[in-house]
UniProtKB/TrEMBL annotation:
UniProt source species: Streptomyces aurantiacus
Highest taxon, organism lineage: Bacteria
Molecular function in Gene Ontology: hydrolase activity
Name by which UniProt lists this protein: Alpha/beta hydrolase
InterPro entries documented for this protein: AB_hydrolase_1 (IPR000073), AB_hydrolase_fold (IPR029058), Sec-Metab_Biosynth_Hydrolase (IPR052897), TAT_signal (IPR006311)
High-level lineage: Bacteria, Bacillati, Actinomycetota, Actinomycetes, Kitasatosporales
PANTHER family on file: AB HYDROLASE-1 DOMAIN-CONTAINING PROTEIN-RELATED (PTHR37017), ESTERASE_LIPASE_THIOESTERASE DOMAIN-CONTAINING PROTEIN (PTHR37017:SF11)
Length: 260
């Protein structure tokens, strides 16, 4: 289910708190509801070619909204290892939890999202496979994203070369910020991940489509969001909307927390 711009903007109306982001020169308004969301725990799962620090701005805004936030550090060595890391984070939560993923992280939360304490799933320009689905085959039904030309394979892992990272993975970000993210990118195992579950079939889901994404085709994102029956918003962003549009992403997470 898509929500229109007016409905989505209204989610941020009411009470707002200013949160100064660490290392940033400006303050951003932290979206907050008049009452605390029913769900107080959020677990953030990063994708490939990134690490947990990619959520830094969203973490600050959620904490300003008095949400308990945990960012998983996926080893990216296998789907099983990433599932174990996320399950470990979920086990530390003290109640119902919203599970949020970016990019490849969507594969992870689709696998672990059936955990009893997961109340809802939020996908940020993320993969959302069916159980056992070959994501590469699904992706092949859509135009090849530009980032593909810059992926380098070495020693059983994949990473993105500098030019493609700046132009196609971190498009829309200031160069200095993109270079910092490039330095921290986490290589992904070349082993194809195969899920045994699709938690979005049983849990309420939200999806943020990145309209200028050069890593996961935006039409593929729309296809997955529609297939999921997810509440969907579209963001004028490249693949890293969590970095370029943290307020929009935070607002969607808070909406999920208030809706389940």
């Amino acid at each position: 289910m898509a929500i229109n711009r007016r409905q989505f903007s209204a989610l941020g109306a009411g009470v707002a708190a200013a949160a100064t982001l660490t290392g940033a020169s400006t303050a951003q308004a932290a979206p907050r509801s008049r009452q605390r969301p029913a769900i107080r725990n959020v677990v953030l799962v990063h994708g490939a070619y990134a690490d947990g620090s990619s959520w830094r701005k969203v973490i600050s805004l959620l904490q300003a909204a008095e949400v308990n936030v945990t960012a998983v550090q996926n080893p990216l060595s296998s789907l099983a290892d990433d599932v174990a890391a996320t399950n470990f984070a979920l086990a530390r939560q003290d109640g119902p939890t919203i599970l949020v993923a970016h990019s490849y992280g969507g594969t992870v939360i689709s696998e672990v999202g059936l955990a009893p304490n997961v109340a809802g799933l939020v996908y940020i320009a993320a993969r959302a496979p069916e159980a056992g689905e070959d994501f590469a085959a699904l992706s092949a039904q859509f135009p090849t994203p530009p980032v593909t030309r810059g992926i380098i394979t070495s020693g059983g892992y994949k990473f993105i070369g500098r030019t493609a990272f700046l132009q196609d993975f971190a498009n829309g970000l200031p160069r200095k910020e993109a270079l910092t993210l490039f330095a921290a990118q986490g290589p992904l195992s070349t082993a194809a991940p195969t899920t045994s579950a699709a938690a979005w079939q049983q849990k309420p889901s939200w999806y943020a489509v990145s309209k200028s994404d050069r890593t996961i085709n935006p039409d593929l994102q729309r296809f997955m969001a529609k297939r999921m029956g997810a509440t969907t918003v579209e963001v004028n962003s490249g693949h890293l909307s969590l970095v370029s549009h943290p307020e929009t992403i935070t607002r969607l997470i808070l909406e999920a927390a208030a809706s389940v």
